[in-house]
Amino acid sequence: MKTTTWLGASLIVLAAGSASAQDYPTQPITMVVPFAAGGPTDTVARLIAEPMSRELGQQIVVQNVAGAGGTLAGTQVANAEPDGYKILIHHIGMSTAPTLYRNLPYDPTTDFLPIGLVTDVPMTVIGRKDLAPTTMAELIPVIKEQGDQLTYANAGIGAASHLCGLLLMTALDTQMTTVPYQGTGPAMTDLIGGQVDLMCDQTTNTTGQIKGGEVKAYAVTTKERLDALPDVPTTAESGLPDFEVSVWHGLYAPEGTSTEIVEQVSAALQKALADETVIARFGDLGTAPSSQEEATPAAHAERLTSQIELWRPIIEQAGVYAD
């Protein structure tokens, strides 16, 4: 009798879960951004939130949960109910966190379900506008000569600007004085104000300032020049052929979220990335939306796993860790 009762109750629960997935969504969805408002990941989130909202029939509310290099937001979403109403957008930091943080409270590969890749954003090496070198070729010997006399701003440990700085200093075998901030916004403000010398950040956050003459652009970290910044040379052109990095972004749901919901959100993402306005806006920022094939759970999972393995030896060699 107890077995029959338990079985009946289980079937009711399964039926309720199935109905819930079929009805999804019935309320607004929160997209958690692990960095401050106004930063590059926030920009990407807000670009896709509106067209995804239209496709899903419910508003996607962007919520900024900054701090600890994105791990506060990651923890919040990892511990959220797996019902599709709280999802995470994160960048390359999702793949570096397992090595960078000694006490990471979640595992990116087991505590989340990848939904799809959003975009690959190039990086730009920029400086305060009155910095003496005018080209990257001129800047390189200055960095090597002055070393820690130069200040390098980043948005905090684990941020894209922090990772780009690690690669730059490793490539030049020279350490600058790093100045971490609570987000890209305040770091950019101080760079524009001349309080710090250099930064390397995503085109989604730097293109406007470069075009407006508020900062000095030295190089883009891509194999080819960007249509949005045709006058800015590549790092390879500037004498750093092996210094190439882009920042990929992806959406995640908590582990346990139903396959049906993940696929539904992924389909909405794919639709949003094909929107002409979104494509044009990404282009203005020096990047492009992910392809329909990349904006899938399978492609995203493969990228995450491969990037964890790529970054592990780089971070271990740099010897930079966070608690």
TrEMBL record:
InterPro entries in alphabetical order: BUG, Bug_dom1
Record-linked Pfam families: TctC (PF03401)
Annotated signal peptide: 1-21
UniProt keyword annotations, A-Z: Receptor, Signal
The keyword Signal appears for this protein: yes
Coiled-coil region list: none
Family: Belongs to the UPF0065 (bug) family.
Protein name, per record: Tripartite-type tricarboxylate transporter receptor subunit TctC
Protein species of origin: Aurantimonas endophytica
